[in-house]
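Deliverable D5.2: sample structural annotation.
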Amino acid sequence: MTALPEQSRQKSESTPSKNGWNHKIRIVTAASLFDGHDAAINLMRRLMQSAGAEVIHLGHNRSVAEIVDCAIQEDVQGIAITSYQGGHIEFFKYMFDLLNERGAGHIKIFGGGGGTILPSEITELQAYGITRIYSPDDGRKMGLEGMINNLLQQCDVELPPLHDGKTVEKEDIPRLITTAENNTGQYRKTITAARHNQPASQPANPVVLGITGTGGAGKSSLVDELVLRYLRAFPDQTLAIISVDPSKRKTGGALLGDRIRMNAIHDPRVCMRSLATRQANLALSRHVQDAIDVCKLAGFDLIIVETSGIGQSDTEITEHADKVLYVMTAEYGAATQLEKIDMLDFADLIAINKFDKRGSLDALRDVKKQYRRNHNDWDTPDNDLPILGTIASQFNDAGMNELFERVMKKLGRKEEDEEIPSSPSSLSSPSSPIIPPDRVRYLAEIVEESRRYDAFVNAQTALARQVYQLDGTLKIVTEDSPLRAELQQIRETLEARLHPDCRLLLQQWPAIQERYTAEFYEFTVRNKTIRQPLYTETLSHLRVPKVSLPKYHDWGDVLRWLLTENVPGEFPFTAGVFPLKREGEDPTRMFAGEGGPERTNHRFHYVSNGLPAKRLSTAFDSVTLYGEDPALRPDIFGKVGNSGVNVCTLDDAKKLYSGFDLCNPSTSVSMTINGPAPMLLAFFLNAAIDQQC
């Protein structure tokens, strides 16, 4: 074993943090399984970060097993979960049980779900062992910051001591790394003993791959793709990931968010640990070498170290890694900026990620040119240069496949002529992104068009107001006044500058007022005249208009209202596309969706009993909405049939609509569905076809 670098042995601060905490607090945050409501947990974790906590954020739709694995590997003091989709009783209890089963009962669990978690359920969960479930009443009494401070105070505790084992096992990694960060003396004592007693059967010198690059280059997504291919190619090897993110200099908090992009790490052969730099202006933690040494002693075959986003001159990763992959995008500025990037001198491989973006081909050409200059290499063919274009977000990307092959060659994991089953095919089909490169600004174009229209409205209303004012002035000025002709000419000039559509709207305004003060509103649809009352009579016999027009007189105000609001059924349709709201639906929509298909079918028959037409409106549970199958696992079972029907097979669809002729013109079915819509549509069509057999 190599000697441990002295600079990595500097003792961490033992004094209270900038926010007054006695310990460095680490928290895992997530939204529960099949729950897409992540706005609340995002707000909460930002407040935790600003209070000085290191937050490992998992995002939404996370299972109990994923959260517990993360909490143990990251060696945190607490877990904070939001749950707004029901099933919270089973979810939180299962998490508590799994933590205790895994020997991590010291990790505290916090939760919230607004009004979806009842007071009686909060009492039940906290009696079971959940540390705290925050209710809306807590929010009113304590405020957001008060709740966060309460949570962090309960997490400001020392973690259980490190065991006195003679060797380093995989389950020891989290606490050993934490000890290295917080107690250098204890770490040195433990690691020295472990190194002395390390079994000879473990890998003598695992390979360390360093991955670095600019912030936002997609390093985490690229790492995830490499991990996926590695696990497939080497089914008997293990992998450790050390991911570093920057600490905030002002608060000491940090967002350790690389796990959000990691979908392939949920494997017993993979261990991941996130580190905060805990120092300013550096891309690595001072304890990254400690973490590498611990992973080496634990016997991992490959160790990947991902840095935080780096600047042009940062090359620190080369001191810790055997081979280095530099990840960048085409957005580096002018070609001369490449001359300032030190990593182009030291990187063993260079990946230009997000290669589907505009300008990527030009970037590939320029980076290759700069690489040749830096290495004085004018003979190597372009295709053999260690520079590739990748799209880590694309399934089976050809660039990612080739990058994996080259990384394995660099690491000595394969010979030059050896094939690795990294993916079904070494070549992928041509890129067909959801949003073509020339349309990536489509949202900005919408905003620009909206602002252009606002400017048009402002200009036209200003003209209309001036014309209105001049019109009033002309009514005051006598016929024989010498100013009248001049004023008339100015008025005509301003009126000519009004857009023809705006002039027409102002001319029609009196007719619109008359139309909406009438007793009935008449309009024609498919040569059929529809006549609807414009007034509703209240219980006290007051006549309330269904459409109330503004009492404006100034033409500028009138025109602004017509251009930005207008009556129902007219551009810009802010009040809907129909002139008036229907008073009743014939037939009425029949809503149902709860439990299994049989229960919902009974509900459909009940609400449609005796009606000539069947309008079945189906709501599905969150398990179905996420395209997953029901299961007895508690975090799934609690959400099955909750706030919607669960349908996972064709037989379920047949049971759901049993007794209804789906091909009858008087039967209509609407289904509230998103991701798995094609599958649910296929279920529906097959159920309808089978009814006719």
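Annotation notes: DSSP finds 21 helices and 20 strands in the chain. The CA atoms of residues 476 and 484 lie 10 Å apart.
The annotation will be released with the project's public dataset once the embargo ends.
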